[in-house]
């Protein structure tokens, strides 16, 4: 009895973790073997999900008699849970917690797993994506990305909501069911399904190495629309609560909108704050002398941006994305070369293992979870509306954007973007959080099925699709011929000094790194003390930093001399590669004057 | 209400993890700053514990009204837990789980944290310690290490048990308390406190860089005695259950002894199995072409050795230690040079962060846990008995070992070993698992205090102590003059072909790596098929592996020519550096013939 208790305590964590590790190993080896045989169709996410499904099935078959029960018969579930030897944590029989917190309250250990998984692996994945991004390209496409992420996600949400509302009405008519979905429930589902997933999209893009502009558009959209989807979901929930009747309520609407702005700006600022801390720490201390400490501090501070944002109820994904972008722009210049390599490798491992873990877990939960509610009409409606909404999102917005863009988004890109609407971790996380208990199980099940469908079917078909659309693949994201031409193009437009340049080159770079003009020059007289405090203490002292800044500064001039002959081909690009400024809200429709961005982007390549 | 529930779900994990990350950051920066000012007295473990204490105090002060209550008034605790907003997991009011599983059942989330912490961070720490070990030195001192680990730990356990029994009798006499500690309870405490801790000892040793032999003795003992302590604890628990009266029971004793052997051999084999899998995988596939995959697979398989052992109820620490030792001996030869560097760096980061996390958590739980039971007599008895038992362990065993060793363990080493009996994570984990509810709180509290005492007082005093004893510090574990002499010494004794050499050089190396003589030569005729299957497919094909093996083979001959003049000083070493064989049970008392070990140890340096 007593020794059994000891044994049991050991097993609680070690066995599931061991199962997860074995799953990850099998996934890695299968994908690697399959790729050796030139099966370009497999992707990690899909294979991880497949093995997760197998594990979920096994667990369910083995522990079928001890399985959990759905809410409603809470007491029975409790009595069973006492005899269960898989879980030590049970819920109270009072049912308060269970009823208030939605469907997952009878499986606290699963919610806990999920939270651990997301807090552990999501930040490195997003950070890695942002950190290794080609910054020049991203800034050049920022306007379009923001348009897709903001307007596109809202369009998607509305479209899916409307479609689903129609389908649920049809469902009631045809099957004469009592249970009715309100419009708000449909909109909630729309919000959950509206966001494409950065994890799966990144996995797909890094596997296929598509054209850089297409990469930027898809990845940028998938990261930023997460914030929009999270906020939309929250806003709809809040709106429903403030306004149980289905009349339009301006106060609730305003409330939701203000909340939206707070989440976005708050997350952005949190990401920036952690970058500033890291940059100042690496600039003003001798941390770079110890690469292990440097790596640890950098890793922990970047992770903190996600954790602190989540702890405040903001969007951790948005915070860690901005943190990654700004770390790659500023902090990286202060690091030692060994620290830089270590950080990149550390995030690479986390990114790789995290992707496998998250998708494996999703597959596992799909078969392990016993309270699924399959509504055929709802599911088929969801399937259809996902495509319809994507079409309504991409084509009209691309048309509008092309009016402003000189470097038009070609039709084949639009087709692929319409096609590559993979859903994943973010939709899953939002579906878990649905609190409206009448529809939560239907929404959860349908969301999971949509994720499996998009990842398996669309993810697998991406490679043939690209070939059919004749979009070039296998592009090296760093060493690109076009990039050079692109740099010349921006160099030649270097006539107006925009706000972004001032902020970035004249204030942020000198303050956070050892590069750029001294702060004492760029800041007004009244900020003399401030300028002296933040001035680089290592100017003319440390050779490595000097070199780095010189490489950065010299890059454009070098390219100018080198690629004079290629400028003919760059003309179509040159006019279109305008710069957007996040701060003055220009949406990249070609109206903003071009601004120079010396040395941008190159930091990640060093 | 509903939005509050959403918020709450996010906070459950993000906020504590954020607090932990902040704690780790502050610890890293403090230790680093303090070390810059030449405060040699600080060690990471102590500082992490200090900040953990501060956090625990803060949490306790803030949530004091919502705090948990000790078992006994279970229903009250339950009602409070419902209103608590820190934890989502509650226990059932039936009290079954609570009473059966000991003190921590009213804090399932804490036990869960603890398990996650140990499963996540303990394996990389021990693995890193074993992987970066100087294998030659370790093998040379193996006999003494095993003596200290086995005989020493049993002596310690008995000593502490006897001392504590005396003190508890005194306690009953003086304070006229009713509660009585049985002898088995005292022995249980003895078993918990008997093992020195690999994490804190490693932290101390790598900070101070003491003499290599002393390093081997202390680290080897601390890793192996963990297994002994775990098994002793389990055996005493089992014995108590089988034999509630305090009469000697041969059946229960035999049962405990068999269990001891099973745990030790099982853990050893599990560690070896995972090494064999990793080695064969890296030998026969082209995994080395992708360093990221290589690193991931290596990391996951090494981690699996710990997890699988824990899941089977064996000792994960022993398994992962043997896995680390054998991975460094065989698998490392199959890896690409980039993979090798990445793996080392990855484990370094985990080791660094893991140590801080575990000790920070121990400090936190000391002040956060509300059910402490301070027994002044018990605590002072423990304090005294820890020193007494250590003296009874080190001095007599060293005397006996010195009879057999030609390279005697000097008195100053003995003093330092007696002094450096740091307790830590393993004792803590064992104390958490104590199931005898009458004494569990006293044992838990006393164990935690002993850990704090040994780490703060003994850990801080280690540096002055070393100086006073005139033991040299700042030794580089890899590039050591003595090592070369040592290699010559073993080379010159290369006359008999022992069992270990045959097994290692003739069978294991050719089977698991690309080095050594072909299996077709060393294996008998009847195993022809087996030999052909495991023969290296890349012989004369891959340059890198060839080079590696050549470097290994050439090392000794190079050294021979180089250090001819230094052999005068090596004479005292040469005779004593005998080899022990784990398999034939020689305890290193100088009776085993010397065996050659070509190329051993150098693998970690490449």
Describe the structure.
- Chain A is mainly α and 606 residues long.
- Chain A has three domains: 64 residues; 361 residues, Na+/H+ antiporter like fold; 44 residues, no CATH class.
- Helices cover 71% and strands 0% of the residues of chain A.
- The first copy, chain A, contains 24 helices and no strands.
- The termini of chain A are far apart.
- Chains A and B meet through helix 1, helix 3, helix 4, helix 5 and helix 10 of A and helix 1, helix 3, helix 4, helix 5 and helix 10 of B.
- Chains A, B: It is a multi-pass membrane protein.
- Chains A, B: It is found in: Cell membrane; Recycling endosome membrane.
- Chains A, B: Keywords: Antiport, Cell membrane, Endosome, Ion transport, Membrane, Sodium, Sodium transport, Transmembrane, Transmembrane helix, Transport.
- Chains A, B: This is Sodium/hydrogen exchanger.
- Chains A, B: Pfam families: Na_H_Exchanger.
Précis, in short:
The structure is a homodimer of 606-residue chains. Chain A is mostly helical and 606 residues long. Chain A has helices at residues 2-36, 44-62, 74-83, 96-100, 108-131, 135-140, 142-175, 183-194, 198-208, 212-242, 250-284, 291-311, 316-329, 337-368, 376-404, 411-419, 425-432, 437-469, 481-492, 499-512, 519-522, 528-534, 543-562, 567-574.
